[in-house]
UniProtKB/TrEMBL annotation:
It comes from Solicola gregarius. Keywords: Transcription, Transcription regulation. Signal peptide: none annotated. It comes from the Bacteria. Residues 14-29 have a biased composition (Basic residues). This is TetR/AcrR family transcriptional regulator C-terminal ligand-binding domain-containing protein. InterPro entries: Tet_transcr_reg_TetR-rel_C_sf, TetR_C. The keyword Cell division does not apply. It holds the Pfam family TetR_C_11. Residues 14-38 are annotated as: Disordered. Residues 37-147 form the Tetracyclin repressor-like C-terminal domain.
Length: 155
């Protein structure tokens, strides 16, 4: 059971950025701008990504849930979405983690790396369901600092 204060912390969803379905730019990728973020520290890179992501379309939980439902009922749409989400050529997180490995912050063969996309995307989809509020900066930075970075061997 949630305390009333948790419900009050929830902020209304932002407006949806509308884009043509034919547009395939990096800014429409769910990890938009992760490839342009380079603070010199993985922790700060991920924190900067959180702040940028909260201004994007993933914060509209209703939209994300509608897309998920549409994918469950339309195999062609589901396949297209999976291809887009798993496009390693266009995966900015791969670049972000590669830079961290080049700096010696993480092991490039860390067993945690294959799971991080789902760990980082999960709150955008599930927090509304479980806690009745969308993810916010404090929650996402807490996830990064207490789950993601320790999984990569960063204290």
């Amino acid at each position: 059971m949630r305390p009333a204060s948790a419900r009050r912390r929830c902020i209304a969803n932002g407006a949806v950025r509308r884009r043509s379905s034919s547009t395939r730019s990096k800014s429409s990728h769910p990890h938009a701008n992760a490839d342009t973020i380079d603070t010199g520290s993985l922790r700060e890179d991920l924190h900067a990504w959180v702040r940028a992501s909260l201004a994007g379309p993933l914060t509209d939980v209703s939209l994300v849930h509608a897309i998920m439902h549409a994918c469950m009922t339309n195999p062609d749409l589901a396949r297209a979405m999976r291809e887009r989400m798993n496009d390693t050529e266009d995966d900015p997180f791969e670049q972000l983690f590669a830079r961290a490995a080049e700096r010696g912050e993480i092991d490039p063969d860390s067993p945690a790396l294959p799971y991080l996309q789902l760990v980082l995307a999960g709150p955008y989809i599930l927090r509304q369901f479980f806690e009745d509020c969308p993810p916010d900066e404090k929650y996402l930075i807490g996830l990064i600092d207490s789950v993601v970075l320790p999984a990569l061997g960063i204290k």
